[in-house]
Write a structure and sequence with these properties.
By secondary structure, the protein is of the alpha/beta class. It has nine helices and eleven strands. Helix 3 crosses helix 6. 38% of the residues are buried. The mean pLDDT is 93. This is 3-deoxy-manno-octulosonate cytidylyltransferase. It is an enzyme of class 2 (transferase). Keywords: Cytoplasm, Lipopolysaccharide biosynthesis, Nucleotidyltransferase, Transferase.
């Protein structure tokens, strides 16, 4: 299989505009993310897909690869445009605001497809257990619930499942926005109309579920910092 990684990067993020160009140590967030993905050595090609000349110039200036795309509502739509003419089997979508992603969780995603002989999986993604009540109730943390084979049933910014039976222990999982797609599933996704659930939650992977595609969730112990707010940026700077 030919496996590539694409980092969708939008300058005007709704909650924190310009966050990808903020400094982490001596490098910007987007450059840190790009270089960390390249250094895993897992991919035949790595590049940033952006609608921002500022971000494109930043990556090229630092010796990286970047392509310009049109404006899109989701990162998956942006990546679909970028990979249309590229010969590849699997596309890994690494969010530009996840600068601390390491090799092991990316390897786990790739293994999903190497073991999927029936080609039933459209995409795979990561989840991590949430332990603190504040983190579980935070709408910036997208929660995911799965069936007994690890396939996603639903994603939400609300607390799911609702813990009505308090005598019974429930684990809560946060969705980490790193995806591995079959190229054909990604291209199909980009042609599908957004439906009410995706629009309401502002969670792009709900579109796959609404159209009956299978998402395999992999539990990981990876602890990074997704930079959605200025407070997240300060956490990331302390981690650096």
């Amino acid at each position: 299989m030919k496996i590539i990684a694409v980092i969708p990067a939008r300058y005007e993020a709704s909650r924190f505009p310009g966050k990808l160009m903020q400094n982490l140590g001596e490098k910007t967030v987007i450059t840190t993310t790009y270089q960390n993905v390249v250094e895993t050595g897992l991919f035949d090609e790595v590049f940033v897909a952006t609608d921002s000349q500022i971000i494109l110039d930043e990556i090229v200036k630092n010796g990286g690869k970047a392509v310009m795309t049109g404006q899109h509502e989701t990162g998956s739509d942006r990546i679909a445009e970028a990979v249309q003419a590229i010969d590849c089997d699997i596309v890994i979508n690494v969010q530009g605001d996840e600068p601390f992603l390491k090799l092991e969780p990316l390897q786990q995603l790739i293994e999903v497809f190497k073991n999927d002989d029936q080609h039933e999986i459209s995409l795979a993604s990561l989840k991590i257990k949430l332990r603190e009540k504040e983190e579980i109730e935070n709408p910036n943390n997208v929660k995911v619930i799965t069936d007994n084979k690890g396939f996603a049933l639903y994603f939400s910014r609300s607390v799911i499942p609702f813990h009505r039976e308090i005598s019974y222990h429930i684990d809560y999982f946060k969705h980490i926005g790193v995806y591995a797609f079959r190229k054909e599933a990604l291209l199909q996704f980009s042609k599908l109309e957004m439906k009410p659930l995706e629009i309401s939650e502002k969670i792009e992977c709900i579109r796959y579920l609404e159209y009956g595609m299978k998402i395999k969730m992999i539990e990981t112990n990876f602890i990074g910092v997704g930079i959605d707010t200025p407070e997240d940026l300060e956490k990331a700077r302390k981690l650096i």
